[in-house]
Structure of Monomeric sarcosine oxidase:
Amino acid sequence: MTRPHDTATFHTLVLGGGILGLAALYHLTRMGHRPVGLVERFTLGHSHGSSHGASRIIRSTYGDVDYVHLMQPAVREEWPRLQRDAGEQLIIPVDSCFYGTDGPAFNGYVDSATAAGADVERLDPDEARKHFPLFRFPGAKTVLRDHTAGMIAASRTMSALARWSQQHGGQVLDQTRVRAIELDRDPIRLVTDRGTLATERLIVAVGAWTGALVPSLAPRLKVHRQTVGYFRLEGPAERMAPEHFPVWFYVQDREDIIYYGLPAFGTGGVKTARHDTMSPESDDPEELDRPIDESVLATTRAFLDEHLSVAVDEVDGAEHCLYTCTANEDFVLGPHPDNPRVVVAAGGSGHAFKFGPLLGRVLAELAVEGRSSVPEFEAMSTRFQPT
């Protein structure tokens, strides 16, 4: 809901109403700071960016041991805290399987999960087929069953963050486009199409629009428009439900071939897409109504027909998701080099949603206190600097 602009100076403003922006507003309100607010160009829950849709995967299986460690406080502390505050279940228990061709790409996931002590179980393909009879596991020598994995009720999470924040004093200024950020002003100024806002501190979390509002970061970021499909399988609908269909992740020996999928949830078909961060070209986020590429859906359907023991009956729907990617898929998260009272979050690279409540806490703490209280983040914070 759009609220009138407050003429007073904000304690902290958040720019961007995706998962990281809403999570930052949630933590600012939890910390008791007032007045705080969030500015969003579109309406909350819009489908133009990276945070829409009914579901996401949560997992600890990563090819980088630092991210395995970073996931632990998210699973242990922040998701449970958010569910308690929201008064509803946001993580749906779902079985999981992570597999790939034998080689350095997939083996990196196995080694990192093992080294970090993640709660994962190794299965050989025959054992895996007994646990997951809908999957063939072609070419796999090992299948990981991640006992921390599950399915995030993504749209419910977004609604819960917005609802709790507004109930506890956070302001949401949606349908408000920011034209410029005046970093050298004190207080900081946001020039919008509905007037000028003033704030002592600013968190910028605008995803694919980061390069336009923080030009110094544009060379580090590429925007890739992903095509997500929903596929109805042959046979009874129950086989696609969370009770029977796992969240899954497939890595080919070449790192740029990755697919993932989730059960049917809020739609008639299982969700499947290729995780593509390697395209040399960058898409224009202003192309808001770009049509679905049917050839991508056909390729994804062919992948499912090869990897599942049941055939795809029909394509049940499709949507776009904008990835904002760095070259190594590390996040960009830290103080702006020209003004330490401005904190930037970008480069989610298609894997930030699961960290959302944790990174929202980090953003709020960095903006207000200049340092995060999350040791796992501090241990790798030099990797994330927006310089």
Notes: The radius of gyration is 21 Å. The chain is about 25% helix and 30% strand.
